[in-house]
């Protein structure tokens, strides 16, 4: 049996649920929240997953989801819930997700210290 982390907040004590190691920049959290608000959905969260595919072997998936899977781990970023499934969590440990909006590029970017290589187009990694 493993010990759970307990945090004391003033007079109340809460038990921390398991979380993932993905970090979300303020720009990425703001953009994701704006997209959810635009859709009028406050019941969804941002899911980040790693799936087989692409020319380098693994591909990221970012999408809004309302379902939960056994083993999902959650974190909150300023009111945006971000979930990672248990199979993807090790591949995403320490990854930083940002949102870039420049003349050259617009979209979410992922800086993943676990990726040892990627394809030329940057769509997949290994």
Automatic annotation (TrEMBL):
InterPro entries: ATAP, ATAP_core_dom, FeS_cluster_insertion_CS, HesB-like_dom_sf. GO terms for molecular function: 2 iron, 2 sulfur cluster binding; 4 iron, 4 sulfur cluster binding; iron ion binding. Pfam families: Fe-S_biosyn (PF01521). Residues 22-123 form the Core domain. It comes from the Bacteria. One of its GO terms (biological process) is iron-sulfur cluster assembly. Residues 1-22 are annotated as: Disordered. SUPFAM superfamilies: HesB-like domain (SSF89360). This is Core domain-containing protein. It comes from Longimycelium tulufanense.
């Amino acid at each position: 049996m493993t010990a759970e982390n307990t945090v004391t907040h003033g007079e109340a004590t809460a038990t921390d649920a398991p979380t993932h190691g993905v970090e979300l920049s303020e720009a990425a959290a703001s953009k994701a929240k704006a997209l959810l608000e635009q859709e009028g959905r406050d019941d969804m969260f941002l899911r980040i997953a790693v799936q087989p595919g692409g020319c380098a072997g693994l591909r990221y998936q970012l999408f809004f989801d309302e379902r939960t899977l056994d083993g999902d781990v959650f974190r909150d970023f300023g009111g945006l819930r971000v979930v990672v499934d248990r199979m993807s969590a090790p591949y995403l440990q320490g990854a930083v997700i940002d949102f870039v909006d420049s003349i050259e590029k617009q979209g979410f970017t992922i800086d993943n210290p676990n990726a040892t290589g990627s394809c030329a187009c940057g769509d997949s990694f290994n």
